[in-house]
Amino acid sequence: MKVILNRRRFVIAAGLIGIALSLGVASSASAQNFPQRPITMLVGFAAGGPTDSAARVVAEQMAKRLGQPVVVSNKPGASGVVAAKELIASAPDGYTILLASNSYFTHGPARYESVDYDYDKDFTPIGGVAGYPHVLIVPPNSAHNSLKDLIDYARANPNKLNVARVGFGNEIALAWLADLAKIDIATIPYKGAATVVSDLSGGRLDLALVAPSVAYPLIDGGKAKAIATTRSTPMTDKRNIPSVATAGVKEFDFYIWNALVAPKGTPQPVIDTLAKALNDSLKEPAVQAQFATAFLDIASMSAEDLTKAVHDELAMAKKVVKDANLPLLKQQ
Fold this sequence. Notes:
This protein is of the alpha/beta class. The protein is 49% helix and 17% strand.
């Protein structure tokens, strides 16, 4: 009886091993045949902004290469947290991906006491997509024509320079610039760029730090003057706008980037397929032309480079928040 019982256990164990192996083979085959149905690309911001523009351009091109639709789904809220949570809750099979920005992984975590996700534990990087610096603009009739003018004025008149502040990234960039330049500025919170533009044109603001898609039309229309950009890129170099670093504050370098990520545990063959489709799309002249029209740079990054950027920028952002004595907030 004892021998029979052991044999039964052996048969059961062997059966379980066989099932596990067959499931593994099926999963591997499924990953190799990916994709077999439409893919959802989550975007944590409303339609019409730079991140959404990049998502729609890339989704169209990736769909051509993958042979399946890539559907953009906007999930705005809490600086991208809503979209990030939805991605984490999805199956790690490559059919739900997220076009994230560094606001998800660096700015938000630096400003909140804690967040409900962790880059290393919850996400698998696919690759970089698009990016853009910010542009420092002043009213067209401003007496300030350079970064040096602004810094000299701010040093002579502490907290008299009224500067617009929109979102965590903007807040961190301004705090970092003020610290490096040894100036005190008065930051005024805004919910969106439309009111910033109105107040800048009306003379109620002395300075704003805005995306090129907001700045360049104002500059071209004579409604604002460019003082500096937060990083030199081919896009900014064409307009001969100096970067903050070249204009005197050498340590300063601020850039917004977007990248595709998947849930942790997504099979590597699936990640490789998505990464190849993304990288091939970014080499497409039509994509480069559409990005240029939307005032976006191509910001290709490998998975390794993306992870390094997250770690480096998060450390910098936390230091800026601490040095500026910005209070930590509770995540919404």
